[in-house]
Each structure stands twice: as structure tokens, then as C-alpha cells.
Amino acid sequence: MKQYVLLAGLLGVAIAQGLNGVPAAYAGFAKWEKVATSGLPTGGPHAGQAKVVYANPAALKEWKSGRALPVGSIVVKTAGPTRAPTLIATMEKRRSGWYYEEYFPEGGRYVLKFGGPNGQQLCVGCHTGVQAKDFLFTRP
Ligand code: HEC
Question: How many structural domains comprise the chain?
Fold first, then answer.
């Protein structure tokens, strides 16, 4: 059991290192549940890419309930290969509401390009369209 936990920990670190530049809280998405892999809306800024949406355990618990997701929920959308995505978009439920960030690979690491402390409005503009689903497009 101990070895298993250690191995899982090391794997987590390995994955996190592969996503250099992405905050640790988001970098572990590959271990979370996939909540959407196909049938994603074709519109939007990332149209036409092979996208996957992951929900952390807190988000997963309420994903299908119709209720607002709890503080601590994190939803990550990636495009491209799981271990080296060409896009990592994140939504984190904070006390103040959803917080949005979007990372792209550049020069061997991931760089925050959109969203973030000064860029929330861009993301909010679109996601407000699905306010009734707690701002999540792919939620049922
Ligand atoms: C032009 C509209 C638009 C803008 C702007 C936009 N999104 Fe989205 N977003 C979508 C659509 C549509 C989806 C559904 C999945 C898909 O088609 O990619 C989505 C899905 C997501 C998801 C998966 C959870 C969900 O809602 O289903 C995340 C995470 C996300 N967006 C993050 C962001 C971030 C971060 C930004 C700002 C940097 C942003 N989005 C800006 C339209 C938009």
C-alpha cells in the first residue's frame, strides 16, 4: 500500500513536471475523471480540436446534480495529447466565483496567455451564456 501511494505520488510529480509552468493544482488533471470527450460544441475559441474536459473530485461530485459546483472545484479543458497538450484551459471555483486561466506551450514550458488576474472578462463574456449550468458548457 505504502509503495503504491509513493508510486502514485511520483507519477503525479512526473506529470506535473511535464506541464512546467502550469500551477500544481491544475497540472494533475490527467488523474481526474473525463466528463466530456466528444460531442463538444463546435463553436467557441477552440473549435475543431480534439478536446477533453476533466473534473477534479469536488467538481465531479456535483457535475450532474444541476446544483452550483462547490468552492474548490476545478475543471480543465485540454486539446491535443494528454501528456503534452496544445492548450490547457482551467476554471477554478473560488469564493468570488469562477476563476479562468488558459495556458499554451511556448519554449518548452507552459505560459499563461489568456484569463488570469487581468484577463477574466474575455472568458466570462462567453461562459456567461451558460450561466444556468454554472457557466459550464459541457455540463449536462
Ligand atoms: C468564444 C466563446 C468562449 C470564450 C471567449 C471562452 N470559452 Fe471556454 N468554452 C467555450 C465553449 C463553446 C466550450 C465548450 C467546449 C468546447 O467547445 O471547447 C468551452 C469550454 C471551456 C472549459 C471546459 C468546461 C466547460 O465550460 O464545459 C473550460 C475550462 C474553458 N472553456 C475555459 C475558458 C477560459 C479559461 C477562457 C478564457 C481564457 C475561455 N474558456 C473563453 C467558449 C468560450
Answer: 1
Q: What angle do CA 99, 91, 115 make, to 5 degrees?
A: 55
| 139 in a structural domain | no
Asked if residue 6 has pLDDT above 60, the reply is no
Could you write out the DSSP letters of every residue in 37-92? SSS--S-STTTTS-EEEEE-HHHHHHTTTSSPPPTT-EEEEEES-TTS-SEEEEEE
40 lines ligand 1 (CB under 6 A): yes
CA of 43 to the centre of ligand 1 (A): 10
Which CATH number does the domain housing residue 111 bear? 3.50.70
Band of the pLDDT at 27, cuts 50, 70, 90?
A: very high
Range of the domain at 89: 2-133
Global pTM?
A: 0.88
